[in-house]
Hints:
By secondary structure, this protein is an alpha/beta fold. It has helices at about 15-25, 35-55, 70-80, 95-110, 125-130, 155-165, 250-265, 265-285, 300, 320-325, 355-365, 380-385, 405-420; strands at about 1-5, 65-70, 90, 110-115, 135-145, 170, 190-195, 205-210, 290-295, 345-350, 370, 370-375, 390-395.
Amino acid sequence: xxxxxxxxxxxxxxxxxxxxxxxxxxxxxxxxxxxxxxxxxxxxxxxxxxxxxxxxxxxxxxxxxxxxxxxxxxxxxxxxxxxxxxxxxxxxxxxxxxxxxxxxxxxxxxxxxxxxxxxxxxxxxxxxxxxxxxxxxxxxxxxxxxxxxxxxxxxxxxxxxxxxxxxxxxxxxxxxxxxxxxxxxxxxxxxxxxxxxxxxxxxxxxxxxxxxxxxxxxxxxxxxxxxxxxxxxxxxxxxxxxxxxxxxxxxxxxxxxxxxxxxxxxxxxxxxxxxxxxxxxxxxxxxxxxxxxxxxxxxxxxxxxxxxxxxxxxxxxxxxxxxxxxxxxxxxxxxxxxxxxxxxxxxxxxxxxxxxxxxxxxxxxxxxxxxxxxxxxxxxxxxxxxxxxxxxxxxxxxxxxxxxxxxxxxxxxxxxxxxx
Length: 420
């Protein structure tokens, strides 16, 4: 099997992840639920991984990181925990349903929603974002990188807008945590939501949320906390405020193993290898007759292959939505977007008139190549591309892929295109 679906979950996991999970299964109790050795060992493991994440994201301290079962839960916590009737929120057409669906629910309850469109290359209109701010605007919610196109959002620009207008900045780092540099203090990110099972190389069922000091998030769930058990209200202090119930301690331990792998390998080394593989694939398929690519690939056409500045000394381096649904995005022209600032190792395409599911089936059955076809939980992006009816085929690469696998993927696309 050749696995090109790392935007869904990274595979395989490094040995560090597996070893940490097995060790946890054999030794750990329930963190914060007792003073015996197994419970204390679990507590120390959770604390250690919290510290690793705080270091990676340059958080003020580890208490600002709360664990979640995935990015979706973290985003729901952030969205339902900060917005209320009368607030206005700005988001983009690049978002995953983990952002869009909670916002659509809140829209029914009186939250005003503006969705900034994207052009036919999936680029955000930042000028329209700036013009969308109102007196009652509470927050901007953006993905750091599209899970469909791999385009990277200009967080510097969005952050500057949020700071200047006093808005909350909520960032979905599902496709970038562990891959791209994320300094929550330098970027003035108020809330960062991230998965453990993608770029951080941990197991599924793990993830988390960073909350800046001074920002209050109403908990999505309340219940057992292991502390203040006689109080009628759930503890308000981070991270306990957002961690009701038993934590996935075994999964968190595995996440710690993934973080250790990243630290010793080097996050930048991982990113550069993934970038080289994606560029190799792009160069091999971009001129194939019948192949349509989706996204902004200008970064791949630049002579300078260094897409991101090196970090400092860190060990990790450092509108109305119903009307929007009815628009014809195929005619949309880009207003103002920042120069290409890079990509993650994700490339979406279609071949001829084939439905994306048919292409994916051929790749799997004839070549042993596993990809993701369909809508990718990104419906507004597909409307922008005019691919709502057939979806797209997404190739997403990881550090563990090889040049030989990339070349096999190129060969498969060429042969399918010749036969279509």
